[in-house]
């Protein structure tokens, strides 16, 4: 059984930074690409960033490039998302997930295991 712990959500002012971390257990962490996804009220869940099994490849949603950085530590079963220069439109529930990276990217359908969401609220 796969279990997840998400850390780092909260409220931040526009222009500020947050770091999200997700720790997984019950799966062979290094066998999966890891990703962060987000879902705002009324919107579909969307890909934010994905990192390959070994960490050599990363994918970012075009609008987030340069502001968000994904990383992973396979020894600690942890994937993190550093978010800088946050904007009110970044407000959403953020989810970590494990799955497959295809063609250098991954969508919601490519993810097999999902962590619980953590809420990020960016105030203007």
What features would you describe in this structure?
With 124 residues, the protein is an all-beta fold. Helix content is 0%, strand content 51%. The strands form 2 sheets. Strands 2, 4, 5, 6, 9, 10 and 11 form a 7-stranded mixed beta sheet that branches. The chain has a 4-stranded antiparallel beta sheet with strand order 1-3-8-7, with no helix packed on it. The radius of gyration is 13 Å and the shape is globular.
What's this entry about, in short?
The chain has strands at 3-7, 10-13, 18-25, 33-39, 46-51, 58-60, 68-73, 78-83, 92-99, 111-114, 118-123. The chain is built from no helices and eleven strands.
Q: What would the principal axes of the Cα set say about the shape?
A: globular
The overall pLDDT, averaged over residues, is 94
Work out the strand percent: over 45%
> Would you tell me the structural class of the helices and strands?
mainly beta
Task: Report the helical percentage.
Answer: under 10%
Helix tally? 0
In this structure, how is the largest beta sheet organized? 7 strands, mixed
Q: Report, as a whole number of angstroms, the end-to-end distance.
A: 40 Å
CA radius of gyration is 13 Å
Order of secondary-structure elements? EEEEEEEEEEE
